[in-house]
Amino acid sequence: MFSMKSVGRRAARTTAVGALAVATCATLMAGSAGAIVNGTDSTERYPFMASIPESAPKHGLYDGSCGASLIDPRWVLTAAHCVRGDGLELDGIVRIGSERRKSGGTVRAIDRIVVHPGYANGDGKAANKDDIALVRLDRPVTEEPIRIAERVGRPGTPTRILGFGTTVDAELKFAERLQELETRRGADSECAPGYAGRTRLCTISRVPEAMACRGDSGGPQLQKGRHGRWELIGATSGPGAPGVACSAGPGLYTDVPAYADWIRKTLRRDA
Fold this sequence. Notes:
Blueprint: E1 2-3, E2 12-14, H1 23-29, E3 40-41, E4 49-56, E5 61-72, E6 75-78, E7 88-90, E8 93-96, E9 106-115, E10 133-137, E11 147-148, E12 158-163, E13 179-185, E14 200-205, E15 220-224, E16 230-239, E17 251-255, H2 260-269
Parallel strand pairs: 11-16
Antiparallel strand pairs: 1-9, 2-7, 3-13, 4-5, 4-7, 4-8, 5-6, 6-10, 8-9, 9-10, 12-13, 12-15, 13-14, 14-17, 15-16, 16-17
């Protein structure tokens, strides 16, 4: 855990490999879909959708962002690689509840960032480990948080992913309007060996040549709950196989329900 005061008032040097189209970023998100590559404009309101503006000047990337999900009036959940790493500079804010990447919604300053203690970056050679982090806002917001699912549906379960990332493979054409893509939970065997598993979800597009990509990291994967409302099951982590283009898929997502105890303890401890 670290405080924004320790890294500067406005800029926090951390990482967002999958959110940025730099060498580090490209290796992490080479196999997910852009903002979403071959996705569509959002079809409904997602008050829990959040974005974390950031850049990586030493890698030549400016005006980037990562996705996140509001899970409590004062906390958003994102990928650990979005907030820890080499050369990333956070703007120090989070935008919540807007369908636009750079306007609307509610903007709050980042008060604290808590990265899972087991996090390890796979550097494009392996899946990221424990790729999850929590960001505390300086003040609560009025947008409605999303509920974390008790469990993830079986392989084949319809899901949806959201993001403001790039809409074109290997380019930095970030979406200004929130994008969505119909997906499904894949079997572990549909991702590369050792990628999916107990804490990671293999995600398959239900649309040809589409998946999350650079700039979508940390954003939500959703499934419908018992009462027909969206529940959070995943956070965009990276490609489900090494060396493939975003639109080729599959995508790899952190299994958020698998970290429910850690999330509860963190929110209680740092309330």
